[in-house]
Amino acid sequence: MLGGFSIPSNLVAYRWARRHGKKTIVFTERSRSSNGVLRKRSFSWRALRWLYRHVDMVMVSADDAVAQFRDELGFGDKVVAGRYASDLDDYFSHPQREAKPAYTYLFANRMTEIYNPIGAVDIFAQVFSKHPGSRLVMNAAGELGDACRARIAELGIGGAVEFLTNLKSWSDLNNVYARCDILLLPASFSNGNFTILEAMASGMGLVVSDRVLGIGKMVADAENGFSCEPTTEAFVNRIERYILQPELFKVHTAINRSLVEPLSAEGTAKFFNELIEKL
Fold first, then answer.
1. pTM: predicted TM-score of the whole model, two decimal places
2. Nearest CA among 230, 225, 182, 238 for reference residue 209
3. Which of 8, 77, 156, 209 is most deeply buried (CB count within 10 A of its CB)?
4. 203 — alpha (psi -120 to 50), left (phi > 0) or beta?
5. CA separation (Å) from 104 to 15, 204, 243, 245?
6. What is the per-residue pLDDT across 191-221, written as a single tens digit (0 to 9) for each?
7. What's the CA gap between 159 and 152, in Å, rounded?
8. Could you give the strand order of the β-sheet that contains 104-107, starting from the edge strand earlier in sequence?
């Protein structure tokens, strides 16, 4: 199984596998340009399609990527929908969120343009103005870090914002989720995001941009979380629903934990095994 088409060493491995009679799967995400537009069957993709013309299976990372590789890029019935595995076991034990005077919000993604961290700061600032005592926990990595800190200072909310600078290991991350209540992801674009799965397993409330593909489509607006336009007004509106109806935490947790339980490492291994057996 190879991770992607465009890595030269993967082509070498593919040719080795062909020479030795081994079957080959390429696992890939949807192919987009730098501005998020789905790629068409360009010269480059025609060349890649020819180079990998004998590949046995193309496993894409989400259901909505199947059509691109099957139809547009020409891999036909070799394309199947796969998924990434998620390390979720520790998250299922997090406590049920309950009504509080003020909640803690988590922006878990890198501070990079497509995830819209400055938008998250503006959203939180409006919530904080209505609900003093609210807190925002933010990923500290990313090229927009200085711009975010400047915006926080401009809005005068520095005392209510915490940057995650002291994580010593990946295993500490689930403890961050355990002390947060609502995930904010006002992304202008994303292929899909593991932070959503982690928040679902943790039992957090979800307010996610409707521009998030893949995993983002698991969040149905007002059913198991909230999915809306990545605007301040829309996000604050959805956050207020959790504040006014805290029983939604329990309702959404019950739905979301049952949805993500099969997506754990063990569940995904079983799923991969079923797909691979078809070869």
1. 0.75
2. 230
3. 209
4. left
5. 51, 10, 12, 16
6. 878 899 999 999 999 999 999 998 899 999 9
7. 9
8. 161-164, 135-139, 104-107, 182-185, 205-209, 226-228
